[in-house]
TrEMBL record:
The species this protein was found in: Azospirillum thermophilum
Catalyses which reaction(s): (6R)-5,10-methylene-5,6,7,8-tetrahydrofolate + NADP(+) = (6R)-5,10-methenyltetrahydrofolate + NADPH; (6R)-5,10-methenyltetrahydrofolate + H2O = (6R)-10-formyltetrahydrofolate + H(+)
Occurrences of domain Tetrahydrofolate dehydrogenase/cyclohydrolase catalytic (ranges): 7-122
EC number: 1.5.1.5, 3.5.4.9
SUPFAM superfamilies: Aminoacid dehydrogenase-like, N-terminal domain, NAD(P)-binding Rossmann-fold domains
CDD domains per the UniProt record, alphabetical: NAD_bind_m-THF_DH_Cyclohyd
InterPro entries linked: Aminoacid_DH-like_N_sf, NAD(P)-bd_dom_sf, THF_DH/CycHdrlase, THF_DH/CycHdrlase_cat_dom, THF_DH/CycHdrlase_CS, THF_DH/CycHdrlase_NAD-bd_dom
Complex formation: Homodimer.
UniProt pathway annotation: One-carbon metabolism; tetrahydrofolate interconversion
Signal peptide feature range: none
Top-rank taxon, per record: Bacteria
Family: Belongs to the tetrahydrofolate dehydrogenase/cyclohydrolase family.
Protein name per Swiss-Prot or TrEMBL: Bifunctional protein FolD
GO-annotated biological processes: L-histidine biosynthetic process; methionine biosynthetic process; purine nucleotide biosynthetic process; tetrahydrofolate interconversion
Length: 297
């Protein structure tokens, strides 16, 4: 059997970003509105700083406003909530992103719940989760699952009905919304997690396998149905062959899986670039809704 098609998330994300940039230009021209995202970072977690910088860079590249709030690690919860209140009330801010994880002394759920749902660019608010779960219009969908769905559709076509999908992981930010999206697309969806009996057997039944567990190369080649579409959400840093160096791997053993799957996302260069592109899309959509302009499909 030939090796799987490698799904080029980087190239797809570049195309999506170009479409978002066009949407930004059109919104400025038609309504005089520049989409703006407030990016809130509390503390100095190095990985978070990298993520935040790439988000801020993308905003500027696409012609949007980036309102950067880099706060000290000892910022109090009340002060953070007051900042969210100010951003909620600011008409130039169409989306608010609070980079996670927050320092331990801050209640993450309380902070996320304080963002008005219309500005919840990450789609983590319970109102948006509820809109997605009920298939209601206007839900802001979390960026990583949204990006994953776009890659699946680009690979398999828009019609996914009847396909067996297995989502490995049940977090609120990836696994659960991913399962909701696939269900809405008329897939037959199974959600697997750390208590699932016979994980390899569950995976082997899937036409579409989305792995979001955070365990390096846990999904082996012989867990995959021949010809399946494999979306590897995992980002895990592991020691490289060269002493003192590290490298990124996914949740899927790529070298094995590529020999069995029909199509597979690499790590890096698969789902990762889609996450930021979808954040840009969510910000543009929020700005369009606020301005009463048509929301890009
Ligand atoms: P969480 O840690 O919140 O969730 C992990 C899920 O995997 C849980 O549901 C857990 O099950 C399940 N799990 C853990 N170990 C096992 C196991 N041995 N067998 C079966 N299931 C298991 O992670 P996230 O959802 O936040 O992220 C998942 C991965 O995706 C991470 O590698 C993360 O870095 C990556 N990620 C990548 C993004 C991107 O842009 N590409 C964005 C967001 C995340 P249980 O609920 O039973 O504990």
């Amino acid at each position: 059997m030939a090796d799987a098609t490698i799904i080029d998330g980087k190239a797809f994300a570049a195309g999506l970003r170009a479409r978002v940039a066009e949407g930004v230009t059109a919104l400025k021209a038609s309504h005089g509105v520049t989409p703006g995202l407030a990016v809130v970072l509390v503390g100095e977690d190095p990985a978070s700083q990298v993520y935040v910088r790439s988000k801020e860079r993308a905003l500027v590249e696409l012609g949007m406003n980036s309102f950067d709030h880099h706060e000290p690690a000892d910022m109090g919860e009340a002060d953070l909530l007051a900042l969210i209140d100010r951003l909620n009330a600011d008409p130039a801010v169409h989306g608010i992103l609070v980079q996670l994880p927050l320092p331990r002394h801050i209640d993450t759920q309380k902070v996320l719940a304080r963002i008005v749902p219309e500005k919840d660019a990450d789609g983590f608010h319970v109102v948006n989760a509820g809109l997605l779960a009920t298939g209601s219009p206007g839900a802001i969908v979390p960026c990583t699952p949204l990006g994953s769905l776009l890659l699946i559709r680009d690979t398999l076509g828009r019609d996914l009905k009847g396909k067996r999908a297995l989502v490995l992981g049940r977090s609120n930010i990836v696994g659960k919304p991913m399962a909701q999206l696939l269900l809405q697309a008329d897939c037959t969806v199974t959600i697997a997690h750390s208590r699932t009996a016979d994980l390899p057997g569950e995976c082997r039944r899937a036409d579409i396998l989305v792995a979001a567990v955070g365990r390096p190369e846990m999904v082996r080649g012989d867990w995959i149905k021949p010809g399946a579409t494999v979306i590897d959400v995992g980002i895990n840093r592991v020691p490289a062959a060269e002493p003192g160096k590290t490298r990124l791997v996914g949740d899927v053993a790529f070298d094995e899986a590529v020999k069995v799957a029909g199509a597979i996302t690499p790590v890096p260069g698969g789902v990762g670039p889609m996450t930021i592109a979808c954040l840009m899309l969510n910000t543009l959509a929020a700005a369009c809704r606020a301005a009463g302009a048509p929301v890009p499909a």
